[in-house]
Design goal:
The protein is α/β, with parallel strands linked by helices. The protein is about 30% helix and about 20% strand. Strands 8-7-6-9-10-11-12 form a seven-stranded parallel beta sheet, with helices on both faces. The protein has a five-stranded parallel beta sheet with strand order 2-1-3-4-5. Strands 14-15-13-16 form a four-stranded antiparallel beta sheet, with helices on one face.
C-alpha cells in the first residue's frame, strides 16, 4: 500500500484517481511514500526515508526544497498547464481593467450611496473621469510563450489586438499552437519599443528576477500598462512605483501584492487569484495525483522539475529504477550488477541528475539491489514487481 500525505486541502474530485485499496490518503499520514501540496511551505520539513515523490498541485515549486529533494532521490512534480485557462481569463480581465479604469470607477460609484435621486445625474456628470481606451487595435507584448502565454496571445489576437510574442526558448510544439496573427519578437527591445500593453508569463529564475526594472521600464513606450500574473519577483517594486509616479507606466496590475504596492493609485493588486477556480483546482489535483501514482507504481516520470522525463511501457517481469549522479561509466556499472537478464535499459539526465530504468526478465534480487546501492554516485534504488 502507498501512503499519501496531503499538506493542503486538495480537491476531492482530483484525488479520485487515488481512491483504490492500494492507497491511503490523508493529512494525518506520518510516513508517506508521496506528498501532495499546494501552497504549504516544505522548507523546514524533515523527510522520511521512504518518501519517494512530492507532487505540487500547481506550477510553481518555490515552497519545496527542490535541491534537497534531488540529493535525497525524491522526485518533485508540478502541473504545468492545469491552471492555464484560469490564468488566461484573469489576464484578459486585467487587460480590460488596465485600459478602462474599471476599478476606480467602481469605487467612485459606491461612494454615491445615500445620494438618493441625485445618483443618475451624478453618474452622468462624473463618468468622464474614467474614460479609457479600447484594447482593439492596440499592441500587446506577451513575454513568455509557455502554455499560459500562448493562450493569452491567442485570445488577445481574437479580440483584435496586435500581438507581439517573445520567448527565446519557444518549442516547435508550442509554435504550432500560436495564432497566425501573433508576431514573433526576436528581442525584448522589440516588445518595449512597440507595445502599449505588456504581460508577463515566465518563471522567476536567476536571469528573470527583477527583469522589469528602471532600465527596462525606461525603454518602454510612455504610458505602458503592465500585467504580472506570473511571479512577483519578476518586477522590481520600487522601480515600478517610481515609473508610475513619472507616468512612464500608466497602470500596473499584479496578482502578487505586497506592502510597497498597496495603496498606490496606479496599482491594481489582486490576492493571487490566478488559479483560484474550482475547475483549476480540480485539474491541478487530478494531474498531480496521476503523475504521483504513475511514478510510485511504474517509475515513469512526467512533469518533474528535478528528474528527467521518462515514460516506458513494461517489457519484463521486474523493473528497477536508479537515481544517480550523471557521471561516466555509471550505466555500465549498474548493468553489470544486473547481469544478462536486462530486457530494456533506458537512461536520461537533467541538471546533473541521471535516472536509469531497467526492465528485467526475472525478479530483482536483494543481492542485485545491494550491489547497485553500493556504487559510488547512486542516490536511490527502487524495485517494482
Amino acid at each position: 500500500m502507498h501512503e499519501i500525505k496531503l499538506l493542503n486541502k486538495i480537491s476531492p474530485a482530483g484525488l479520485a484517481v487515488l481512491s483504490t485499496p492500494n492507497y491511503k490518503v490523508g493529512e494525518e499520514i506520518q510516513q508517506p511514500d508521496g506528498i501532495i501540496v499546494r501552497s504549504a511551505s516544505m522548507h523546514d520539513m524533515e523527510f522520511a526515508p521512504n518518501l519517494r515523490a512530492i507532487a505540487r498541485a500547481g506550477a510553481g515549486v518555490n515552497n519545496i526544497p527542490v535541491d534537497r529533494c534531488t540529493q535525497q532521490g525524491i522526485a518533485v512534480f508540478n502541473t504545468p498547464g492545469a491552471n492555464a485557462n484560469a490564468v488566461k481569463e484573469l489576464t484578459i480581465m486585467g487587460l480590460l481593467m488596465s485600459a478602462r479604469k474599471i476599478f476606480p470607477a467602481m469605487e467612485w460609484v459606491q461612494s454615491l450611496h445615500g445620494k438618493g435621486d441625485e445618483v443618475p445625474a451624478l453618474v452622468e456628470a462624473g463618468k468622464s473621469k474614467f474614460t479609457g481606451p479600447e484594447i482593439k487595435g492596440k499592441k500587446l507584448g506577451v513575454i513568455g510563450l509557455g502554455t499560459i502565454g500562448v493562450l493569452v496571445a491567442n485570445a488577445a489576437a481574437e479580440l483584435g489586438m496586435e500581438v507581439y510574442g517573445y520567448d527565446p526558448f519557444l518549442s516547435v510544439d508550442t509554435a504550432f499552437k500560436i495564432h497566425l496573427g501573433v508576431r514573433h519578437a526576436n528581442t525584448l527591445k522589440e516588445i518595449y519599443d512597440n507595445c502599449e500593453f505588456i504581460t508577463l508569463h515566465l518563471p522567476a529564475t536567476g536571469e528573470t528576477r527583477g527583469m522589469i526594472n528602471s532600465q527596462s521600464l525606461n525603454s518602454m513606450k510612455s504610458g505602458v500598462r503592465i500585467l504580472n500574473f506570473a511571479r512577483g519577483e519578476l518586477v522590481d517594486d520600487e522601480d515600478m512605483i517610481a515609473a508610475l509616479e513619472d507616468r512612464q507606466v500608466r497602470c500596473y496590475i499584479t496578482d502578487f501584492p505586497n506592502d510597497k504596492l498597496l495603496g498606490h493609485p496606479g496599482v491594481i493588486a489582486l490576492p493571487h487569484l490566478g488559479a483560484s477556480t474550482p475547475e483549476s483546482e480540480e485539474n491541478c489535483a487530478e494531474m498531480a495525483a496521476k503523475q504521483l501514482k504513475d511514478f510510485l507504481e511504474t517509475g515513469n516520470v512526467r512533469n518533474s522539475v528535478n528528474f528527467p522525463d521518462m515514460q516506458i511501457p513494461r517489457s519484463g517481469r521486474g523493473r528497477i529504477t536508479v537515481a544517480h549522479k550523471n557521471i561516466p561509466t555509471m550505466i555500465s556499472q549498474i548493468a553489470a550488477c544486473i547481469g544478462d537478464n536486462i530486457n530494456n535499459l533506458t537512461n536520461n539526465s537533467k541538471n546533473g541528475l541521471a535516472y536509469t530504468l531497467m526492465d528485467i526478465d526475472g525478479r530483482a534480487t536483494t543481492d542485485m539491489v545491494n550491489r547497485i546501492k553500493a556504487l559510488e554516485g547512486v542516490i536511490s534504488v527502487r524495485v517494482f514487481k
